[in-house]
Design goal:
By secondary structure, the protein is of the alpha+beta class. It has helices at 14-22, 27-30, 121-127, 131-150, and strands at 4-10, 34-44, 51-62, 65-76, 81-88, 91-102, 108-118. It has a 7-stranded antiparallel beta sheet with strand order 1-7-6-5-4-3-2.
């Protein structure tokens, strides 16, 4: 499958968007197909301020398919970037990146990148053709979550 790249303009700041995406434990509240999330640990870098590594599990359910995977998540609050790689799970390859670039108007450009390949042939056949659409739904869910978290009542 070819990598998926999306760019969106958000009215919210890069730090707000970064904080929202980093809050993995809340994903089941709003993210389609995500039925569970658990953060094992978050360790700050011993050498670089604003940098940390998180280990987290996500449980995904789509129709009859139930999968979970563990990711290593590299957080850089100074650069407003998040990089995700699989530590254990159904992927042969998983690389996901969020980059939040501040805009002059106080909002930010959200760059989303996803490159993956399922290791299990059944998952490759069933889910790979759906992933571009599913990814767009997930990014839209993050946008809706930002509106819920950061909009003032009179903005709605």
């Amino acid at each position: 499958m070819k990598p998926i790249q999306l760019t969106r303009v958000s009215p919210f700041s890069a730090s707000q968007m970064f904080d929202m995406v980093v809050d993995v434990a809340k994903y089941p509240e709003f993210l389609p197909y995500c039925v569970g999330a658990r953060v094992h640990e978050t360790k700050p870098s011993a050498t670089e301020e604003g940098v940390a590594c998180m280990k987290a599990d996500l449980m995904i359910r789509y129709k009859f398919i139930h999968e979970s995977y563990t990711s290593l998540v590299h957080l850089n609050s100074k650069a407003a970037s998040i990089e995700v790689n699989q530590a254990h799970g159904p992927f042969r390859r998983l690389s996901n990146k969020w980059q939040f670039e501040p805009r002059a108007d106080g909002g930010c450009d959200v760059h989303f990148f996803l490159d993956f390949e399922f290791a299990v042939p059944l998952l490759r056949r069933v889910l790979s053709p759906l992933m571009e659409r599913a990814t767009r739904h997930m990014v839209e869910a993050f946008e809706a979550r930002a509106l819920t978290l950061y909009s003032q009542p009179d903005d709605q």
